[in-house]
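re: ur question from earlier - yeah i can do the single chain one, its not a big deal. heres the input i used so u can compare w yours
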Amino acid sequence: MKSFVATRLGAMVAILIALTAVMFLLQHISPLDPVKAQLGAQASAEAVAARREALGLNQPVLVQFWDYLTGAVTGDLGTSYRTRHAVASDLGDFFPATLELALYGIAIALILAVVLAFSTTLKWRGSSALRAILFTGASAPMFLLGILGLIVFYQKLGWVPANGRIAIANPPTGPTGLLTVDGLLHGRFDVVADALHHLILPAFVIAIGPAVAIGRVLRSSLLGDIDSDYARTARAKGLSEGQVMARHVLRNSVGSALSMTGLQVGLMFSGVLVVEQVFGWPGIGQYIAQSIPVADFPAIAGVTLMLGALYVFINTAVDVLQAAADPRIAVTGG
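and the output i got, formated as tokens:
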């Protein structure tokens, strides 16, 4: 198991170094001069030369890459051309909103996936309708699903707010940056309720696609194990079908669902960026949308590196969890 974990961690580090190298190369071959972008087109030649030397742009390419890599490792992602702030500081301001939305989306997706898999496998009443609704929702693009949700649940029914993260003035600002958590920590249950009110629709929108993907894989695994020898033995001991599924079949079926969960969680963050634009959510989707039109490469690269690192970390964690659930994976190397 230790060798398996070490191998996965080594692969994670190699992928992150490769991703950093790609971003450095793109920045290096970009026609945009980072010095003039910072100082302005009217800057004197002396000011440009001094700034270029201060940024280390006169150094050999390998030295520049090493500085870029070590800076990324220590959280130095450069300075945004647009905001004139450190990119890491900007991400610290915008990322909590995206993280909170993604966490609730993941939670809803897992709940829907388990309900979908169990209801269709055990043929619960209403499972066909649930399956039809989820599959229909998953087949629609996220932005279209978000717009339809706003038309129905905001404009027609008035159940949810149209945009934003919270309607209460001066909500708690720390320590986590997650309004639902900070509201609980400060005893501000009005903040928690209002934050959940704003979260519910966008979280459902980003959850439907992953829920169907994870639910289908889990259902397939459950159907494959439900007639196994150990399942029949459990039934012979008098356990109900639900108990057999929960106590015996699920653990042996969860490996493939975990793999799909890791993939979907990583992809979910790209979907979140789209959904944030539909719902006016003040996260990194808004940050990157404002940075692209003005070619703010440090901001674009910073978001890319952060999301890439998050994606790789999640999939590494899923691999380790799979090995913990099924030790045979660690023995065979996956």
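The two ends are 11 Å apart (CA to CA). not sure if urs matches, ping me
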